[in-house]
Amino acid sequence: MKRQKKPLYRSVNTKTHGVRHGSGAKSKWERNKKASENNRSMKQSMHSGQRHGFDYTPLFKFLLSRVGDDWADVHSEAVARLDREEPITWMVAASYSEGSPFFRAGESSYFSGLYVDEDNVLAVVDPELTADTMEPFCACCTHTLNGTRLTTPYSDKTN
C-alpha cells in the first residue's frame, strides 16, 4: 500500500490567548436598523467566509524546489496535496509579464515570484534576487526571502 504524501500546508494555532482574527461579529450590531432594511448584505449569513489558521510555507518551498520542471506535473501534484488551489496563484503567474519578482507571504516573509514559460516549465521571475541583494522594508522585523534571513541592513532612504 502506498503511503500518502504530506499535505503542502499546515494548521497553525488560532486559539492562542490574545490572538484576534476579525470574525465579523460586529455586523450583529448593525442588523435590524432602519438604514439596513434595503441592504441585501445585511440579510445574509453572519459567517465571514474567512479562512484562518493555515500556513502555506511548505507549498512555497515545494514550488521553489520544482523550478525547471514541467508545470503540468508540478501543478497536479501540488493540487492533490492542497485543501484548495488558490495559494498556488499567489506565487505562480501564468506568464512572465504577469509575474512579480517576489510576494509577501506573511508579516515579514517573502518568496520569489514564479511563472510558467513558453515551454510549460516553471521558472523564477527574477533569478538575480537573493537574500543578499534584497533590502528589508523596515528596521523592526526580521525579513526573510525563501526562508533565508536578509543580510542587507535596513537603510532609511528618506533622509
| Widest beta sheet: strand line-up | 4-5-8-9
Task: Kindly report how far apart the N and C termini lie.
Answer: 64 Å
Average pLDDT level: 84
Residue stretches low in confidence (pLDDT < 50, at least 5 long) are none
Structural write-up:
The protein is α/β, with parallel strands linked by helices and 159 residues long. The protein is 16% helix and 14% strand. It contains 3 helices and 9 strands, in the order E-E-H-H-H-E-E-E-E-E-E-E. It has helices at residues 57-65, 71-80, 86-91, and strands at 10-11, 54-55, 92-93, 102-104, 109-112, 114-116, 122-124, 144-145, 148-149. The strands form 3 sheets. It has a 4-stranded mixed β-sheet with strand order 4-5-8-9, with no helix packed on it. The chain has a 3-stranded mixed β-sheet with strand order 3-6-7. A hairpin with a 2-residue loop joins strand 8 and strand 9. The longest helix has 10 residues, at 71-80. The radius of gyration is 20 Å and the shape is globular. The model has no long low-confidence stretch (mean pLDDT 84).
